[in-house]
Write the structure tokens for this entry.
Amino acid sequence: MSRVALITIARGRHAHWLRQSDAVRRSERAPDDRILVTMGDSELAELARADPSGVHVVELPGAAPELPLARARNAGAEAALARGADVLVFLDVDCLPVPGLLGAYADAAALPAVGARLLCGPVTYLEPPPATGYALDQLPDCPHPARPAPAPGKVLLGDDPDLFWSLSFALTAESWRRIGGFCEEYIGYGGEDTDFGHTARERGVGMAWVGSARAHHQHHEVEDPPLRHLDAILRNGALFAERWGRWPMAGWLDAFADRGLVERTSDGGYRQVGAPLG
């Protein structure tokens, strides 16, 4: 049987982590290793170390507002591989896995026509929890419409790297090494996961959507467009364009432009209004 590591990265969101831990304990197939990578959050690290089920904690320093998401995922994978993982499952700290998620990813990774791919699962976004918290056995099943969502028990092959998301995905150790991890030049919000999807495709790793690997995204407040991440989105967008020849996150960038915060450049890119042309 394959050795499965569950990897989560986080700063803050302590209540979300505790709810996720409750959900993980209900898993039909327990992770062989559970790894948390904290980004400048010693309190969360201590909280995780106190978990009686055992959590391997990797602490990355830094209190900057822009999180090193790519570096953190790479650190989690490195720790998992060092501990003998065959299958790496990445789950956002906001996500609650259904009991069958880990088993579904492990089973898909063992399928000859599927296992060498990036494996993604459908995610349902939840409303704010009631005062008593989410009832884990009564969560709705309404996957996000912008991503494929095959029925439980089904697997759908696909090769559009723009649809890859890092909320919930898995891959074999061999595929991780073939892709080479996330590009750590991305700092802060946006772009690093789409870059990972494109790198995977470039290196011959396709995608598959695993219907039984379902998760539920816990509610938290969001900005649309994410104004507080404007600088990071512009910087990471420019990096993506340099690497892949086009800008990602066009919806957000156009929304920023509509508000007069950014403007298009003659080469089809974007820059902050008032920024030097050079």
User: Anything to note?
Assistant: Residues 202 and 251 are 24 Å apart (CA to CA). Residues 227-272 form one domain.
